[in-house]
């Protein structure tokens, strides 16, 4: 039984022995992400003040000009992980290529690589709507003490050791899994501590919410169009409710709590959809499955897709198990 009111720090220590590998390295890594999350949260929360501070001729503490928040978040995550010398490599949605961190050093025994989307849903920042950060952790496949390689990052999602997100919403939450269920922690901003607020999070098997950018309807494949019509049909438990924030993390978070499905399909304009397999879909798929939900590209389990490039995009359907299976059925029938 998980006790509530415990802090994330306590939870990490207590659960260290349940990790597959128990050297403590993964715990330290999640601690570093916790720290980066607090720093980014602090900045996101004053987003609306940037112009006001700027107008007063102010700069930040280092005397630098204010930066775009997604660039800032990217730098903070990378800096935090680098400074603590905790990973051997990082790949970020904001960077063209992966970053090696002393991985060629023979004394460097760090085994993990991290993939991040430092600030997802960034088009929502300017309008004070929830955004998030997403992370995904793998063990490197190349030997320790040698430079990290592209293969260390191009692993299937089913090889993930941990994954999670931070949602900067009405409150800030860090939600993550190490393959043993999903737990959510809420930040108490007064003291800067995350508390276990949502132990053992699970998607309801069925739901009544569908989340999709319906403005693109005309460009969607037939199977998706048919499924959307199904959601809107007058039946016993339908029509479903449509909710689309346009921040994957927030849409996922709501659907996990209330029951729902998120869809970003391919379209006649974007042949592989929009979302990135490595930075967005795989970590959300790992969380979804750990929370008894499901994630698919319409035909294939997301975590079984073989990645071929760092910034690869895939169609993404994710959420309550029965809803995702229904959408897959429509995709198959439209073949
Ligand atoms: P981003 O990584 O550039 O922020 O894009 C990802 C975001 C998701 O969070 C969101 O679900 C989707 O893009 C929204 O896209 P659209 O505006 O096309 O509906
Ligand atoms: Mg993104």
From TrEMBL:
GO cellular component terms listed in the entry, alphabetical order: cytosol
Compartment(s) where it occurs, according to its Swiss-Prot or TrEMBL record: Cytoplasm
Enzyme kind, highest EC tier: hydrolase
GO molecular function, one term: fructose 1,6-bisphosphate 1-phosphatase activity
Cofactor: Mg(2+)
Domain named Fructose-1-6-bisphosphatase class 1 C-terminal: residues: 204-331
List of residues binding Mg(2+) 2: 117, 120, 280
Positions of Mg(2+) 1 binding: 93, 117, 119
Biological processes per GO annotation: fructose 1,6-bisphosphate metabolic process; fructose 6-phosphate metabolic process; fructose metabolic process; gluconeogenesis; sucrose biosynthetic process
Annotated cofactor note: Binds 2 magnesium ions per subunit.
Pfam entry (one): FBPase_C
Swiss-Prot/TrEMBL keywords: Carbohydrate metabolism, Cytoplasm, Hydrolase, Magnesium, Metal-binding
Swiss-Prot/TrEMBL catalytic activity: beta-D-fructose 1,6-bisphosphate + H2O = beta-D-fructose 6-phosphate + phosphate
Residue ranges occupied by any Fructose-1-6-bisphosphatase class I N-terminal domain in the UniProt entry: 6-199
Residues engaged in binding substrate: 120-123, 213, 244, 262-264, 274
Annotated EC: 3.1.3.11
Pathway(s) of this molecule: Carbohydrate biosynthesis; Calvin cycle
CDD domains: FBPase (cd00354)
Subunit structure: Homotetramer.
Family membership: Belongs to the FBPase class 1 family.
Name this polypeptide is given: Fructose-1,6-bisphosphatase class 1
Species this protein is from: Bizionia arctica
Gene giving rise to this polypeptide: fbp
């Amino acid at each position: 039984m998980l006790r509530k009111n415990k802090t994330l720090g306590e939870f990490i220590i207590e659960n260290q022995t349940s990790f597959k590998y128990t050297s403590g390295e993964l715990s330290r890594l999640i601690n570093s992400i916790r720290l980066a999350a607090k720093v980014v949260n602090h900045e996101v929360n004053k987003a609306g003040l940037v112009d006001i501070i700027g107008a007063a001729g102010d700069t930040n503490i280092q005397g630098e000009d204010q930066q775009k928040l997604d660039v800032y978040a990217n730098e903070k995550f990378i800096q935090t992980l680098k400074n603590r010398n905790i990973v051997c490599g990082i790949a970020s949605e904001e960077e063209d290529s992966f970053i090696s961190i002393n991985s060629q050093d023979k004394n460097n025994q760090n085994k993990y690589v991290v993939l991040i989307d430092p600030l997802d849903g960034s088009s929502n920042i300017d309008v004070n709507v929830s955004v998030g950060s997403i992370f995904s952790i793998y063990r490197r496949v190349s030997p320790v003490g040698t430079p990290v390689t592209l293969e260390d990052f191009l692993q299937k999602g089913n090889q993930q050791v941990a994954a999670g997100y931070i949602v900067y919403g009405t409150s800030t939450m860090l939600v993550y899994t190490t393959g043993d269920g999903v737990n959510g922690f809420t930040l108490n901003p007064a003291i800067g501590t995350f508390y276990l607020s949502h132990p053992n999070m699970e998607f309801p098997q069925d739901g009544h919410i569908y989340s999709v950018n319906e403005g693109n309807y005309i460009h969607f494949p037939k199977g998706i169009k048919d499924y959307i019509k199904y959601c809107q049909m007058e039946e016993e438990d339908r029509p479903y409710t449509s909710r689309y924030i346009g921040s994957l993390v927030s849409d996922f978070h709501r659907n996990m709590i209330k029951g729902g499905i998120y869809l970003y399909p391919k379209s006649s304009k974007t042949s592989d959809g929009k979302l990135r397999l490595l930075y967005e879909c795989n970590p959300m798929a790992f969380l979804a499955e750990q929370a008894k939900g499901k994630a698919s590209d319409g035909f294939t389990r997301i975590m079984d897709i073989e990645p071929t490039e760092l910034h690869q995009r895939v169609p993404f359907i994710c959420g309550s198990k029965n809803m995702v299976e229904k959408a897959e059925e429509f995709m198959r029938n439209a073949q």
